[in-house]
Amino acid sequence: MSHADPCAIGGKQNQRLGAFEAPACNRNACPDEMAADAVHDDFESGLKPLWMRAQAGDSAAYAQALHRIAQRLRGYFRRRMHSLPDDVEDLVQETLLALHLQRGTYDPTLPVSAWVLAIARHKLVDLWRRRGRRDDLHDALDEVDETMLAAAPGDGSAQRDLARLLSTLPEAQRQAILLTKVEGLSVAEASSRTGASESAIKVQVHRGLKRLALLVKMEGAS
Amino acid sequence: MKTDTLIELLARSAGPAPRAVALRRLAPAAGLGFVVSALLALTLIGPIPESMYGTPVPWIKLAYAGALAAAAGWLAARLARPISRLAAPRALVLSVLIAMALLGLVAWLSASRADRMTALLGSSWLSCPWNVLALSLPGLGAALWAVRGLAPTRPRAAGFAAGMFAGALGALGYALACQEGSAAFVAVWYTLGIGLTGGLGALLGPRVLRW
Predict the structure, then answer these.
(1) With a CB-CB cutoff of 8 Å, which residues 167-186 of chain B face chain A?
(2) Which of A52, A59, B25, B72 could be a cystine partner for B164, CB 3.0 to 4.6 Å?
(3) pTM
(4) Which of residues 85-114 of A touch B (CB under 8 A)?
(5) Cα angle, residue A78 at apex, residues A73 and A80 outer, rounded to 5°
(6) Are residues B83 and A13, on separate chains, in Cβ contact within 8 Å?
(7) Interface test with A, best of B83, B194, B207 (most A CBs within 10 A)
């Protein structure tokens, strides 16, 4: 009894990964999926090297990777949120923030796109649950197709203003984020500017971003 | 704010991704779970006589609980990631459970017919699972907190693994105060206590493992 649960979950997960890695249908029968699969392969193979460099600390590669991911997320959410088009960009930003905070949980032996998809799906389910839209949830999850992260254009404006949210953070966290993220100072420079220790700055930035993610989520719920 | 601005904001001076995130969160939870359980067991129930440490009795319990804590901790660490390979940690958890079940069965069969009931039930079979569950609660809180700070996408399974982890740590502390001598007793009642903690974790998972 004790092991049945994780077994079942593991099976579901494999299926989920499989759906992303290999087309489930006959190629001749569904040309759309075939095209989407090629797009997906490009996506993963283009993203992986960027992402690995980003994980090692290359911020230019990180920005590039996040841009690519944002584009895919926009398409993914847009196709699943017909009834909430205004919330798409908010969810894209919320997912990007979650990816950033949780990038330590990425296992380099697995595809980046599958990791991104798992987080995006989690955020989408979370949104539906907050909105109490169970029917839409089923629609979104039963459909397993390879177009999941197909690109979609967008001007990238969100309804929610993160800058305003930033102003609601405690002073120390806001200052740490502004100095290191917006002004672009190094942690050492920010530390000498404020008089706080380097580890304190890092902690404040991390806490601030976490809190920001929470605020974004709460706004989405209300 | 435009998404492009957010990306620049995140990428600028992001630095390398943190490493060993699961270990860094689960290890303190393990330490806390074991220490609190051991302290509570030793003060509330009282330590076993020192002479018992010369026999295999406490060591079987400690080895079982320790091995299960390590295996379940590994499983919880995997389930705390959005996607992960689960086969190896799951197999290890099962192997530990099966090894203990076999050991208990051998001990039970090798007891004389008249002693079998005593071997299985000891004098504390009614309280043992509940004691393990109670001693595991601080560890369960710590383990759920640790997993919650990561990115579990299967909250029920992750809660279950965190519960097994905490339950094994609670049993590890309880072993310092439990006088039962039979491996059959350990295989049944310790496992039940750990399983109860796992079940509680699975119940709590979907409610508390939100991020």
Answers:
(1) none
(2) B72
(3) 0.74
(4) 89, 92-93, 96-98, 100, 102-107, 109-110, 114
(5) 100
(6) yes
(7) B83
What parts of chain B have a pLDDT lower than 70? none
Distance from CA of B131 to the nearest CA of A (A): 19
pLDDT at A11: 39
What lies within 8 Å, CB to CB, of B47 at 6+ separation is B176, B177
Each domain of chain B, given as residue ranges in start order, spans 58-208
Tell me the backbone φ, ψ of residue B84, rounded to 5 degrees.
Answer: -170, 165
> Of B4, B17, B87, which is closest to A103 when you measure between CB atoms?
B17
Share of chain A above pLDDT 70, in %: 65
> Architecture of A160-222 per CATH?
Orthogonal Bundle (1.10)
Which has more pLDDT, A52 or A130? A52
What are the boundaries of each domain within chain A?
Answer: 4-157, 160-222
ipTM of the complex in this document: 0.86
pLDDT class of A71 with cuts at 50, 70, 90: very high
At A159, list the tokens. 């309804």
pLDDT at A10: 38
Residue in A closest to B75 by C-alpha = A6
Contact A5 B202 (CB under 8 A): yes
Q: Is A7 on the interface with B (CB under 8 A)?
A: yes
Chain A: give the shortest CA distance to residue B50, in Å: 34
Sort out which chain A residues have CB atoms less than 8 A from B163's CB and list them.
Answer: none
Instruction: Determine the residue type at A64.
Output: Q
